[in-house]
Amino acid sequence: MKKRMTAMLMVALTIMLIAAGCGKASHEPVAVDESVDKCAICNMAVRDDAYAVQLTTKGGKTFKFDDIGCMNDWKSKNTDAAISAEYVRDYNDKAWVAYNDATYVYDADFKSPMAYGVYSFKDKKAAESFVGEQGKGKLMTAQELASHNWAQNKEQMNMGDSGHEDGMDMGTNEGAEMDMGANEGSGMDMSGNTSPTDNSGSH
Known about the structure:
signal; 3-stranded antiparallel beta sheet; single chain; 5 helices; about 15% strand; Copper chaperone NosL; 5-stranded antiparallel beta sheet; 8 strands; alpha+beta
């Protein structure tokens, strides 16, 4: 009798776990299309490189960014957005990594598309090796990034010496950013140019 009750409890628990798993929205990272993808904050082209990041809302809309600092800016402007998934790229091999699982390295002198100087790595050892090779850099977790000051290197911005290879003066956009994504649920084009990717039909 006791064994039978234990077996029944195990079956019930398995069913509950399966049901819970089916109820969760699972959004996988979306490939970068350089011909159309624009950063949802700065409106620059999103390159298929180590700096590209993205987030997907529970409604299935994916927003792409050319720099992790831009994604942070979007989140700060859309505090009530229901975010289902966030992904960053491994600096070494460009593999997509869940935002909370990555290890980050920051230094003001590190070049990135919008001069935020934050690089992401899929494992801590790789991040530590990078810091050792560079002789500088602060190791950070996703939780620590929440209190990061997200300052841009103005010298890089004004000299066009960031990760963008087109040499444009990115500093001209400072202070001109629109409040993008505030009406997430309305279906508006929040990037000012291209519509966010809608993944709701594929899940």
